[in-house]
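User: Show me an example of a complex going from sequences to structure tokens.

Assistant: Sure. Here are the input components:
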Amino acid sequence: MIPTAFEYERATSLDDAVAKLAAAGGAGKLIAGGHSLVPLMKLRLSEPTVLIDIAHIPDFAGIREVDRKIEIGAGTTHHDVATSPLLRERCPAVADAAAVIGDPQVRNRGTLGGSLAHADPAADYPAVMLAVDADLHIKGSKGWRVVAARDFVQGVFTVDLAPDEVLARVTFAPVRTAAYAKLHQQASRFAIVGVAAALEVRGGLIASARIGLTGAASSPVRLSNVEAALGGQPASSETAAAAARFGGAGIDDLNSDIHASAEYRRAMIPVFTRRALDGALARLAG
Amino acid sequence: MASPVLPKLVGQRVKRREDPRLIQGRGTYVDDVKITGMQHLAFKRSDIAHGRIRSIDTSAAEAVDGVEAVFTGAQIAEFLGPMPIGTPFPSPDHRAVASDVVRYVGEPVAVVVARDRYVARDAADAVTIEYDPLPVVVDPEQALTGQPAVLHADFPNNAAVGPLPSGTGASPKAVDDTAIDQAFAEADVVVSQRMVNHRLAPTSIEPRGVVAHYEPGKDAMTIWSSTQNPHILRTFIAALTGLGQDQVRAIAPEVGGGFGSKINIYGEEYVAAALSKRLGLPLKWVEDRSEAFLCTIHGRDILAYVDLAARRDGTVLGLKLRLVADIGAYNMLLTAAIPTLTMTMASNVYAIPAIRATLTEVFTNKTPTDAYRGAGRPEAIYFVERAMDMLARELGVDPAEVRRRNFIPSDRFPFKTQTGAVYDSGDYAKALDRALEKAGWEGLKAERDAARAEGRLVGLGLSMYVEVCGVGPSSGLPTGGWEHSQVTVERDGRVSATTGASPHGQGNETTFAQMLADQLGIPMEHVRIHHGDTGVVKQGIGTFGSRSQAVGGAALHLAGGKVKKKMAKFAAALLEAHEGDLVFENGTISVKGSPSSAKSFADVAGYAYRPVKLPEGLEPGLSEEAFFEPSNNTYPFGCHIAMLEVDRDTGEPRLLKMVAVDDAGHLINPLIVEGQIHGGLAQGIGQALIEEVAYSDDGQPLTGSFMDYAIPRASDFPRFELESTVTPTPVNPLGAKGVGEAGTIGSTPCIVSAAVDALSGFGVRHVDMMLRPERLWRVINGGQA
Amino acid sequence: MARVSITVNGRKRSAEVETRLLLVHFLREQLNLTGTHVGCDTSQCGACTVLVDGRSAKSCTVFAVQADGAEVTTIEGLADGDRLHPLQEGFWEEHGLQCGYCTPGMIMSAVTLLHDNPAPTEQQIRDGLDGNLCRCTGYQHIVNAIQHAAASGSGR
């Protein structure tokens, strides 16, 4: 398949990317790894007229810890996230999610920022971003702003990003007791249901919990009823089992396709919530 | 004079000679062919499943810079006739490019000729078409009511073929049900089940492609195509372009897999050839994967109402199969014939005394079906083996034992089944025993039961199969069922051989060289096998129906024997010996019993090409050809065993163990045979677990890319465990039966039976494929499968 | 149109290309490096896999302009003169291919696989091939081929 024609520009800095986007006046589209965008362009489901390549902006990729927060540049590849020693040590759930995206070649090119900005409802990252309560740092013509992950996705393939804005980096406080569990679609490897759980455990009790869900519904959501059921309870598998049962209730925009009906997806939410919680609890010991 | 002793190569695991070029990226596939001045085709295709074309506007496409020409279906019809089929069944008019009505999503409606493929795609997208939509029918049983749509006016109720009866008491003129009715009347047990052997996409990793180059100065056409049968391609291309077969040269370069889908001659090939002739330009078309899912034939899609009658002791008395084949919108080359093979193979490995099979083929608004690896036989084996499994469960008998009770005994071959197949040879009990032993059947059962005691859902499946291979006598194929070979000993003693079997991964360059090296007593490195080019290979049929070795190999063996015989006459003259006393080995021809009396193979070859004293009755030269016409098909068989676990929470099936014992007669190269079986198993397991072509009710494909149609990945499988038994066939001089499709046929039912076994605690008797996690989850949760 | 300069198999190649030209078509059509194949439209099959700056990438999902300034290695650049790469040896030795169409991409993926993990388990090899589809072999001989290369110390 062949994409339609476009103009191509390379941004040399974030400001340059913003300027080029502004100049394109809404016709511009950012490309980094291109692994969400290029297949759509080849199928002519996306026909941007100006492509602005942000992959070569200095310091656009990278993972570091700043003031007890993890900062991941939007241009960081899934592979680099999946294999980051820092993440493996401080917040392995994020690396786990990156490690099950697509396949090795996709992970070598695809980027965190690209995946988040594309907002495929079956993508893996959104669930963990919700679970770690990430902040998304966005640069635009009017300067910087920060959007919480839970407010970023507005619908299927729709996010809180103006035509002249660039998602530059993601920050979050690392949570070691967190995990991601996924039922993958056999063909595409996207998530039919993906659940990320992040727990704060103090003195054997779950002080707080954040559970992010992807794949099941039209956009990623927090499972607040599960979170509520976990709060203050002993950090145990029994607690996880009991709380996970609340997963899936109250979600009314479940996806349904040939791979999985809405009913099945609803039933899988507690299953994978339980698995994510068990995975998080298993990290208490480690 | 003494040379190292050459090992016998037949039967050895010889590394492939094809590989050095392929592992270095030096193979030439059709998309690698470039010709000066070559232009590219792109097709505008229907995006609706059924509709009448009201108007086509090509002006915007013609205005795209770099566009040479745009043709509508009506314009093409002025110089290209309807596409022929290769079966005797009645067929509706089928044009390479539709001119009035479109009947499936993806059907070509217009074609663009342009400078490069980018421009061609832009222009094809710029063609605008208005349709008057017609009602759509996708369900084959509904289609048989004639509502809401009839696809072809000459085929009322969309019945393409039948109902066509076969089996006990059935002849083309009359059907006598006495025996089958009697069998069911006497039965203690009858198991009945509706089963679907669903639609698949063949999905060779190389999509289809064609380069057509008509040279006006020569009034001749060369056509490169990713095809399994260049000679058949040549026949049909010549017929439709008004050229003689002498004017067309067809070349199958490296072919990146076919699995039956590249037997067909497709509309795009006819269009490329016809337009090349008309425009006097070389033209290329290469399929996109998205097009492949729409426009390359699909496979399977037969549903069956199965009734199996038996005595309480497990003896099968009768089988009824009512088959409905959803063949899609048109007949392609072999479309109508494929489901008839399901009837032919309905007896499987069993001596079933009464069989009634009835086949109806139905047109629906979908992509046409045709041969996909196994082609009609996997469906038969699936229906029968699932029914046998249900019978075993009903009787509480071990599934291996109920099968054993019904085997055709090994001393009853050749055996004619009730549906007319004449099995050449077989020893089914031996295959079963080897498989049970290899798998450790009793141990597996204990393992399964122990897992169940822990609450895990583990199941075992076993299936027996026999398939029809080495296709086949000319009576069964409109193209002829022979194969051809020519073996030439060159002046320097090296050997060039041609084969009409046109490989696309089967490794004939290796196996055929092994055979000739042994036959002529020369190093394999001195033998070269030519194939896939009608300009080099004088005659041929092609590669399908697991026929390369059994028919093509046999032709090669005959031609090799002829040239050896002639060479012996030259050697006899040189050595002043009797030709019957000569030994061909280690690159020499010597007199039996007196090894010092010898000439090198090369010296004898040189003499044959400059026979200063020509032996009486001989012509110079060493080049002999042979056509091999088999007396019958071959019938390889085997036993497959699977162990599978279903995740209780999600319904996800996971294959834990896969054992395959296959009997393909004598094996030339066990390494290559293993590869064929592995690949077949992968496709058969893929059908059971993850592959399914799906359509919406309005005929829109829901599996139009690898985003939605899964084919197996490496991580889907455990290590396969193989073994073979050897029961030679008497129908060819090699005793080889063919192995290309075996794995695909045996594996599918045993996977499904293993899943049903795993879920037997939930009272389920049968689950239709594919075994989507949700489908199994529903069984676990008490819903309908 | 845009000017690109890409180092392919160690040789710098410059050309004027359409911006929408896919890297795989740049390699195949402009450089005649036809060992890299196209098998799908949606980044699943992996037949087009090459190394971009040392890591496996699907060249049908990269525009040539994106690779401007990059180093690309294709199957044609893998052997060291006449000496086959250990993975090529492994695929030959273990019958890791039939039709050969997926093979170049499969081998290039395996290069990165063994680079990251020179002594993989069988399961790690199978998982590491998630981005490459083969329809002929059922993968078993491919796994053997990669094990063969790993045993010969191929993670170079």
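The lines above are the inputs; the final block is the predicted structure for all three components together. The first strand of chain A starts at residue 7 and ends at 10.
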